[in-house]
Write a structure and sequence with these properties.
The protein is an alpha+beta fold. The chain has three helices and four strands. A hairpin with a 5-residue loop joins β2 and β3.
């Protein structure tokens, strides 16, 4: 199953009500056969602009949360649509997490940073031709 990062912006509610909203979101993920790996509460913050919730209320402060979730692709779409129907959730989004890049040097392999192997004779010929061209250009300019 692919990994996703789910961001949730909820109303600026009390702590007990925020816990209830988070429980409902988690149950929605579990009903979609998802596995929750991590939940992070980012706190109460000012919104970048005035946001309105599905019930029409305007909000300038909101609670931000991040969840790391594993679930299948079709289930991610249904879970997102179900979470957006919750009246206490202002915004929600799911983004697929890419695999983390591990440098070859860190894994014990020889580091190759995209260089192409060039034979030493080709390198010398290229350098000689390049120097010859630049020399000819400077001689032509002086005349």
């Amino acid at each position: 199953m692919p990994s996703y990062e789910m961001s949730i912006i909820t109303k600026a509610l009390a702590k007990t009500e925020t816990v209830q909203v988070l429980k409902r979101v988690c149950q929605t993920v579990w009903s979609g056969e998802g596995v929750i790996k991590r939940v992070e509460h980012l706190g109460l913050r000012d919104t970048p602009y005035i946001m309105s919730s599905p019930d029409g209320q305007k909000w300038t402060k909101a609670r931000y949360m991040l969840m790391d979730v594993d679930m299948s692709i079709p289930n991610s779409r249904t879970v997102l649509s179900d979470v957006r129907k919750d009246f206490d959730v202002i915004r929600s989004n799911i983004v697929r997490k890419d695999l983390q890049f591990i440098r070859p040097c860190a894994s014990g392999k020889q580091c190759e940073f995209g260089e192409m192997f060039i034979d030493e004779t080709k390198r010398k010929n290229w350098r000689r031709n390049k120097l010859k061209k630049t020399y000819m250009r400077t001689q032509y300019r002086e005349k």
